[in-house]
Inverse folding.
């Protein structure tokens, strides 16, 4: 059996702020939460009992993309229309975007999405495999998700 990703755990600086972002803006369901002193965490999913994302309040400072560790976290949406709905919700929230609107993963690609940051500066992507035809590509030949 090949390994596959189970869930992704993120260290955050403020659990309440991150929980509001991932639950209220991105639509994850809260599966479980622990709020004992010094050990705050939340498990998020799609409504079942399997977590997709876990948040651990044990970080200080902001995300540092220049250090070893998580490069970015990518989510897949069911359609380009749904990516644009997320973009609208994120803009209303005031999220920091890396590129303006939907961009292609590379020049001429059908795949693409939006690239933005969570409240701690963690790099996030919401994309689709098709539907981004004709969208601009920020880099001539390098993958968009590799350099943001």
């Amino acid at each position: 059996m090949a390994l596959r990703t189970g869930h992704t755990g993120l260290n955050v600086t403020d659990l309440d702020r991150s929980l509001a972002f991932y639950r209220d803006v991105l639509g994850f369901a809260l599966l479980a939460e622990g709020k004992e002193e010094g050990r705050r965490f939340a498990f998020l999913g799609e409504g079942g009992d399997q977590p997709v994302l876990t948040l651990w309040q044990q970080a200080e400072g902001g995300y540092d993309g220049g250090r070893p560790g998580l490069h970015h976290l990518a989510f897949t949406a069911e359609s380009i229309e749904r990516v644009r709905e997320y973009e609208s919700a994120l803009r209303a929230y005031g999220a920091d975007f890396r590129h303006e609107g939907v961009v292609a993963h590379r020049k001429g690609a059908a795949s693409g999405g939006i690239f933005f940051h969570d409240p701690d500066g963690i790099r996030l992507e919401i994309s689709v495999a098709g539907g981004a035809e004709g969208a601009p590509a920020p880099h001539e030949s390098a993958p968009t998700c590799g350099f943001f």
